[in-house]
Amino acid sequence: MTPTTPLDPTALPLEQKAALLSGQDFWSTPPVEAAGLPSVVLTDGPHGVRRQVGDLDQIGLLESVPATCFPPAVAVGSSWDPEVAERIGAAIGVEARAIGVPVVLGPGVNIKRSPLCGRNFEYYSEDPLLAGVLGAAHVRGQQDAGVGASVKHFAANNQETQRMQVSADVDERTLREIYLPAFERVVTEAQPATVMCAYNKVNGVYASQNRWLLTEVLREEWGFAGAVVSDWGAVDDRVAALEAGLDLQMPGDHGAGNALVVDAVRTGRLDEAVVDRSVARVAALAGYVTEPAHAADVAAFDADAHHALARELAAGCAVLLKNDGGALPLAAGQRVAVVGEFARTPRFQGGGSSHVNATRVDDALTALTAAHPGVAFAAGFTLDGSGDVAALRDEAVELARDADVTVVFAGLAESDESEGFDRTHLDLPAAQVQLIRAVAAVAPRTVVVLSSGSVVSLEGWHDDVDAVLAGFLLGQAGGSALADLLTGAADPSGRLAETIPLRLQDTPSWLNFPGEQGHVRYGEGVMVGYRHHVTTGTPVRYPFGHGLSYTTFETSDLQVTATGADSAEVAVTVTNTGGRTGRHVVQVYVATSAGPVRRPARELRAFGKVSLAPGESRTVTFALDRRAFAYWDVRESGWVVAPGEHTVQVGRSAADAVAEASLTLAGDEIVPELTLQSSVAEWFEHPVAGPQLLEGFLATMPEGAAEMHAGMLQMIGSMPMRRFAADFGAAIPTDELERLMAAARAAR
């Protein structure tokens, strides 16, 4: 029998095409045999595969196939290492193929606008360059393994409060400089299979039906060729969403939306070509479908090897914040006490849709005991706050009194932070703060290890302890990785990807988070995270980019060379001046006051992580392209490099520049457009029209007018030229204004 040639998907009956643009259940698209299209399963990531088992008509958060839980994005961000992100993406791709998942939903590259966001554990950083570089690396790794990625949540999805309907009200410069660049980098450099639109509105329009976002920016400007998929339940108006550029609605809604699409086409309200366009994009996802080695079987991939990988990578993600007197690493022969329930019941991932059914979980207590025999343990507190708080604390204090070093494991429980809600404060539970202070009062040395999905306050106990290791959430092998770091088997090389403030009130979004009455105003503009703190001089506990090592590094011989009117090359030498091999993050910032807009005091523009043996030096080079020096000009609707001086700085952190060199860039000579709505000052200051306008104006005015000109501009400079000309029509003829506007246009 001769096989039937599959139909072009766009040649299918309209009803079938509409059905292809919506899930057949919670996690998959419908198969279309006539077009040779298999069902495509899309399931949660980003730090592990959450392949639901059983009934696919429900969300099934707690019922999924075992998979490796790798370090979540909060940890990967602190690695400052694209190789970590790429290797995680590649391993997730291997596991996804093994258990029959063609598209894994991740990574998330939303900016950490506020440390209170409940989903910060799924995002990399408060800085768009760091988030974009790591996100692109993850996508490359995952898609090179044959599994489609879905960069999310597009866009301005920076809180969980009212996330299904809140309008993020944000100006275009802030969008372009802070909230869109990570998505832009992932799309243009890594070509993800899909982009997931966010739940929220952007300036009053749902992201799922925001044509400016989904078509004008994403496709026309950035060249995205894949499918746009909704976040689960994010579609408000199915027909409007299709017209705006959304292709696949997830999950299915039992055909209700499909009927609306068919009706809109039949009645002429929707062009069928719009449906065909989306059908072609969704059909292309079938190219990622392969037969799994053993469907829904963890044995189809090497779980042991992936667990070992998770341990190796996690060790590069933790940040050593403080290490007074060389309290770490733990020395052989020391009497070590371990305090805190998190040591034996680890917090290693976040709550919500990304919750992975880990193949196994390492706890730090077991790993420390194996590496450092004789460790004593006391729980110190319970995770749910139950039990006799005073008795638990007293037991821990007595243990600490007899030890040389006490390691306190503290942090937030999953119930304290999760998808679906935001935190209201940064504090650790009171019982844990009391425990840390009580232990520190009697212990010769106290080390605190923190586990949380975002930053927590260190105030009230920081100065009482000798060392602080921020583990954030490190995945299923995080317990062993923490033991490796505490004992010195691994050198800490993480750097903060988000600022730790002294007070929540010091954070730039404090007055505008999470908004009110359905709107959240991004009133801090581009001054997000460290951009605000370094620009205003606001002190913080630990700045963005901070992190210590068990060795030391020195930066020298910074060289900055212009390579064009708007680009430069940076070279800097880094030397390991300590006694052991370590990894150092080179952070390159750019500072400038050139141009007509307020710029942050400095902005991260390049970074790299280098491994150096004791005494080894290496020269690291970076190419700074046009965007490294540019700002978004709202009047020009584009990126502009202001002519003038720009300073390149190499920093230990955003607050600590250790070397700098300046260069003068020719930049862009912008000849502004003039209209009758342009201000009088803009007309007189215009490089083409201004001199001619001033000459003609003064020629018609009485003697002494030239001396009055500057003062006059101060008083009426902001008046639109249309109104000024109406009042002083004899001085500036209308035809002369028309001529000058034409001359300005010609000069552009």
What characteristics describe this protein?
six-stranded mixed sheet, 26 strands, 21 helices, alpha/beta, globular, 29% helix, 748 residues
Shape: globular
Arrangement of strands in the largest sheet: 9-14-13-12-10-11
Strand content: 15-25%
Oligomer: single chain
Low-confidence stretches: 294-298
> Rounded to an integer, what's the Rg over CA atoms?
29 Å
Structural class, please? Answer: alpha/beta
Number of DSSP strand runs: 26
Number of helices: 21
Separation, N- and C-terminal Cα atoms: 67 Å
What do the pLDDT scores average to? 94
Question: What does the model show?
Answer:
The longest helix is centred in the N-terminal third of the chain and has 17 residues, at 82-98. Helix 1 (14-20) crosses helix 10 (272-283) and helix 4 runs parallel beside helix 6 (181-190). The radius of gyration is 29 Å and the shape is globular. Strand 12, helix 14 (430-442) and strand 13 (446-451) form a beta-alpha-beta unit. It has 748 residues and is α/β, with parallel strands linked by helices. The chain is built from 21 helices and 26 strands. It starts with 13 loop residues before the first helix and ends with a helix.
